[in-house]
Design goal:
Radius of gyration: 25 Å
CATH class of the largest domain: Alpha Beta
Strand content: 25-35%
Mean pLDDT: 89
Helix content: 10-25%
Number of domains: 2
Distance between the termini: 45 Å
Shape: globular
Strand order of the largest sheet: 6-7-8-3-9-10
Oligomer: single chain
Number of strands: 21
């Protein structure tokens, strides 16, 4: 049985309603939230292990922020239960929950210096060792030299670290991050992704991060849950979601995918053979996510090799002839091609600029190839364009 604190780090007692369980993380069971006739979150089941970095990823309106607000106590579920560290907190007041939230706008007190901003929660609880605790937290976020400055004197990234320190000093069971990097420019945002992950590893607390940014979620989180229309489409390690998506929404929302209609010819123990526009291709059985006789053959653009007609490519198994270059975009580390295939579909190919191959020109004939183990197969009933527009946004 896990040991559960009798008092929340926020100062109030954890609610005793509900039975204590052996699970010491964050648990949502059959959680639904409706606003009038609109269902924002539907029968959500979720387990977030203690000490993990968990990301809720999805487009605007998918229910991720509503889920976060229910955990924080800012929204009450229409039905279902929320447990934290073995206690039911479904209806507990926000201040009675061992939870702190970091928002996109930081919400720092402009009239207080950085030291006092970080010390605020401890002073409200009348803690005696405030100075030592604040100094330790400022050291953690590397802002010791900024202690006497006001928030307006700091950069956006520094203000974000102050907000983190102010939340972490209360030692919450869970730290909720609501689009915390959305106000930062791209370069600073990438630097802060690494910084926040470093802090999470160092303090060992549970972080639940809400974002619509795919790169942000995959860079920072141990586990990512992709949400769409109030439900979780797929959940797992970032690499698993990217390499082996189970729906067209996940395939398109996380990066980009080529989805080509095919007909299943044969199912063996390890491999599914598919007729893809007259060409037989192989898909690992563990990556085939349809029981029907038709499906979408999926392949990521960077997994596709491109060469001149007849050129031997290092991707035995799936070779597709008859392509013609319809667009060329040089982006530095890679060249991105659109290749029109004989059946009329344009496929995306991302070719690394290693210098081993020349850059093809518009209108040139090419062949494509990929290793079978990189392909996946999705249900034909799913929209091939699902998630693509949201992913671009």
């Amino acid at each position: 049985m896990s040991q559960v604190a009798e008092q929340s780090p926020g100062g109030g007692a954890v609610p005793a309603a509900g039975e204590e369980t052996a699970y010491d993380g964050l648990r949502l069971r059959q959680v639904t939230k409706r606003f009038g006739g609109f269902t924002a979150v539907e029968t959500l089941d979720l387990d977030v292990p203690r000490g993990s970095f968990f990301a809720l990823l999805g487009p605007s309106g998918c229910g991720k922020t509503t889920t976060l607000r229910m955990v924080a106590g800012l929204e009450t579920p229409t039905s279902g239960a929320i447990e934290l560290a073995g206690h039911d907190i479904t209806y507990a007041k926000p201040y009675r929950r061992p939870v702190n939230t970091v928002f996109q706008n930081y919400a720092l007190f402009p009239h207080l210096d950085i030291f006092e901003n970080v010390a605020f929660g401890l002073r409200r609880r009348k803690r005696k060792d405030v100075a030592d605790a604040v100094h330790r937290m400022l050291e953690l976020v590397e802002l010791e030299s900024q202690a006497k400055k006001k928030p307006a004197q700091l950069s956006g990234g520094q203000q974000q670290r102050v907000a983190l320190a102010r939340a972490l000093i209360n030692e919450p069971e869970v730290l909720l991050l609501d689009e915390p990097l959305g106000a930062l420019d791209l370069k600073l945002r990438r630097a802060m992704q690494i910084e926040i992950k470093r802090i999470q590893v160092e303090v060992g607390l549970t972080f639940v991060h809400v974002t619509h940014d795919q790169e942000e979620a995959m860079t920072m989180a141990d586990t990512v849950a992709v949400m769409n229309a109030g439900v979780i489409e797929q959940m797992g390690a970032p690499a698993e979601l990217y390499e082996n998506p189970r729906s067209t929404f996940v395939a398109n929302f996380l990066g980009q995918s080529n989805l080509i209609e095919g007909r299943v010819l044969r199912r063996d123990a390890d491999v599914v053979s598919v007729d893809m526009q007259g060409i037989t291709v192989s898909v690992p059985a563990a990556r085939a996510h349809t029981d029907g006789d038709r499906g979408w053959v999926g392949i990521r653009p960077e997994k596709v090799l491109i060469g001149e007609p007849g050129e031997e490519l290092d991707a035995p198994g799936n070779t597709i002839p008859g392509g013609v270059i319809s667009d060329v975009s040089f982006v530095g580390v890679s060249t991105q091609y659109l290749v029109r295939m004989p059946w009329g579909q344009e496929l995306q190919v991302f070719s690394q600029n290693t210098g081993r191959h020349r850059i093809f020109r518009h209108g040139e004939p090419v062949e494509l190839s990929w290793r079978p183990e990189y392909a996946f197969l999705l249900d034909i009933s799913q929209d091939a364009h699902a998630g693509a527009e949201e992913g671009e946004e």
